Amino acid sequence: MEIYLRRVALPSTPNMSPIRLITLNQLIIDNKKLGEGEFGAVYAAKLMFEENSDKKFPAAVKVINPTTNLRHNIEFVRDY
Ligand SMILES: Nc1ncnc2c1ncn2[C@@H]1O[C@H](COP(=O)(O)OP(=O)(O)OP(=O)(O)O)[C@@H](O)[C@H]1O
User: Fold this and answer.
1) In what residue span(s) does the Serine-threonine/tyrosine-protein kinase catalytic domain sit (predicted)?
2) Residues within the annotated binding site?
């Protein structure tokens, strides 16, 4: 599974932050849905920059809807 990490920019500024790959072990995904978009649901989460680190940072995780077709998923990741 590939997880893409990107810092969320202010809405008024272009998001120029690089995409970074992390592993699932660096995330604790809460059972709290924050919202939903066309491509999938967004959940509250905690992010660790190193596995099992005591430092946990609040994050929002978008889980891409598996029913969305592959072309759309590729477009989503490219444009994100
Ligand atoms: N960082 C965040 N913090 C809190 N809530 C968030 C965050 N990101 C997204 N959400 C919630 O999830 C909802 C969907 O966000 P998302 O970014 O997926 O929207 P979208 O761009 O319309 O989706 P899509 O690209 O799939 O059409 C938002 O309307 C908001 O309620």
Assistant:
1) 31-78
2) 62
